[in-house]
Amino acid sequence: MEVVASAPGKVLIAGGYLVLERPNAGLVLSTTARFYAVVRPLIDSLPADSWAWAWTDVKVSSPQLSREATYKLSLKNSTLQLTSAREAANPFVEQAIQFSIAAAKATITDKERKDALDKLLLQGLSITILGCNDFYSYRKQIEARGLPLSPEVLLSLPPFSSITFNSEVANGSMTGEKCKPEVAKTGLGSSAAMTTSVVAALLHYLGAVDLSCPGQSSSGSATGQDLDLVHAIAQSAHCIAQGKIGSGFDVSAAVYGSQRYVRFSPEILSSAQATGGTCLPDVVSDIVTRRWDHENTQFSMPPLMTLLLGEPGTGGTSTPSMVGSVKRWQKSDPEKSKDTWSKLGIANSALENQLRILKKLSEDHQEEYESVMRSCSRLAYGKWTEVATNQHQEAIVRSLLAARDASLEIRLHMREMGIAAGVPIEPESQTQLLDATMNMEGVLLAGVPGAGGFDAVFSVTLGDASNAVASAWSSAGVLPLLVREDRRGVSLEDADPRTREVSTAVSSIQIN
Questions:
Q1: Among 266, 335, 427, 497, whose Cα sits 20 to 30 Å from the Cα of 232?
Q2: pLDDT of residue 281
């Protein structure tokens, strides 16, 4: 028996910083970048005396990092004890395993299913974790080989390529923080996607959920309840692993896909935070019985719009540090910060409304919509009004321009907030790049995702304009990534993705 589950990375295109506080919303897109967790038994059959065992074995492998860790799992408390590891163990994986097993025990009450769960645990667990190349930066390797910073070069890399560790490990402060993260990433929420994939795979493998049919949690169906359980456990494990209760939009996107998100009340995880994840059976019983009050309303980009991400290569950014600086500014200047947040909230809502209007127009007036998008993709925004020849096309162009104006308003207030808080939310180098991008043919939006900084830039283009933007970014020293929007959330896969990639490669060889 083998279960493979995947969960996507994310891009927060609106709602940076505001999404930290209820009832502010964020617009988050799930992506084609996915983490995979492969769960199978360690042994094929049970030893004769296994029912008397108090512990079972767990092995976790991360081939891309050349890492492997083995554990003893307490069958009573669902807690792990590390027995060996090639490198430091991953707290996100550990918490995902512990919380998932405790949740399965807490939610499975039927005797037959409980016996099946016990048997699966006694056979041990083998967990393999794989992340798409898109989560990691290969920029240094590309530059070292003298290759162009192009999507074609990224595409030539083998799937699930080995990951290079940063050599700069000097301590940057009295607290012992590293100047750079251990692994260079692209800011797609790798820890949330990884945690969610492990939780989903384990809960399905152990029989606590059935992820074989896609669904939405808002439907009230059994599938929706299953996704809600995955969400609750993934959020809990992720928060305990990172040592704080964040907004959770990255985990929510990994579970439910693209959405309009309003965070859950932090008090929901008060018991887990108070115990630091210990006393797992009690903590998980509390978590699964609480009413989670997050909001995840279905949202995705309208048709014929393409999300494009770029890696500027100007140094990484510490999101927690930036968030801390913004919070200190809020306390020191509550009047100014409240005014800025209010303006940001209005601009975020305006952008969301226009994108929803455009989606409705694409459904009601498909031919006019497609015609406008094709025409505008070849023109700079100043000439978009010239393509409208009837009232429906005029309405489409008006919404496109209004969405563009809203995004510029968001950027303005994010820059103001960064200056006031003393952090580079939209650094000058990014501003120049984004302004140039916004003036290109067929570009609707451009900005810094999430908390901003130097990690990445994004644009949303019309029609097939993304190729020209990617080319311009490459010329400007920005590496265009292969990531696109994929509104799917957590998914059950039919096979280990490495097997699929090998099959595809063999087929390609045979065809050629």
A1: 497
A2: 86
Closest CA to 448 of 74, 8, 17: 17
Please tell me the predicted confidence (pLDDT) of residue 222: 41
DSSP E strand boundaries for 164-275:
259-262
Tokens found for residue 108: 């499975």
Which helix (H) or strand (E) covers residue 147, if one does? Answer: none
Q: Are 39 and 263 in contact (CB under 8 A)?
A: no
Cα 492 → chain centroid = 17
**Which tokens sit at 143?**
């530059």
Element containing residue 283 per DSSP (H, E): helix 280-289
Angle (nearest 5°) at CA 87 between 37 and 272: 60
- Per the CB < 8 A criterion, the answer to whether 458 and 11 are in contact is yes
- Whole-model pTM: value is 0.92
Low-confidence ranges of the chain (pLDDT < 50): 169-180, 215-222, 502-512
Q: Which residue has the tokens 């993709």?
A: 377
Alpha-helix residue ranges (DSSP H) falling in 333-390: 334-364, 366-376
Could you count the other beta carbons within 10 Å of the beta carbon of residue 483?
A: 26
Residue 508's pLDDT is 32
Give the closest residue to 234 by CA, choosing from 5, 503, 486.
Answer: 5
What are the strands, taking DSSP E only, across 161-302? 259-262, 295-298
Question: Which of 315, 307, 310, 34 lies closest to 150, judged by CA?
Answer: 310
DSSP 44-84: SS--TTGGG-SEEEEEEEEGGGTEEEEEEEETTT--EEEEE
CA distances from 229 to 100, 191, 208, 233, 285 (A): 10, 19, 9, 6, 12
The per-type count for the chain, helices as H runs and strands as E runs, is 16, 13
| CA dist., res. 315 & res. 116, Å (int) | 50
d(CA 317, CA 181): 9
Contact call for residues 40 and 2 (beta carbons, < 8 A): yes
Residue 342 CA, distance from chain mean position? 26
